[in-house]
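Journal club prep — side note

Before the paper discussion, L.F. wants everyone to see what a predicted structure for a comparable chain looks like in token form. Sequence:
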Amino acid sequence: MTTQPNPATILTDIMLAVFRVNGRLLEKGDQLVEPLNLTSARWQVLGAVALAGKPLSAPQIAEAMGITRQGAQKQLNKLEEDGFFEQRLNPRHERSPLYALTGLGNRAFAKAMALEAAWANGLVGGLPLQDLKKALQTLNAIHERLDSPVPKKGARP
């Protein structure tokens, strides 16, 4: 007689797999965008502003990308120094400027995304679409639960 796997044990295995995949994605991402004078961390910060379609503050970038404000600020300082971003006045917060992509920043992000598209197409080959959709759905559900309070033992949802 076989017993059903414990869902918490499976979730732990998923978490470990996500950590391993994240590490490899950062490593491969660094290699992918190195010719553009970027790292995965810098690409992530560029992406936050590019995908928002408007200038953002360091805290907004950090929240959008799931990184610390200090981590976002560190990358912003380097990116601004290299000409990828420019600071703008933030009418809502005097001491927290907005960061806008420069022409160089927009071009670098577009090139990075073109490289990523080719890379992603190679990675996805042979993986069933339904499996990919289910993985995304499951990871999004876990993400939402991480932002919710943990129910007390024995409490009903």
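L.F.'s comment for the group: The longest strand covers residues 85-88. Keep this in mind when we get to the figures.
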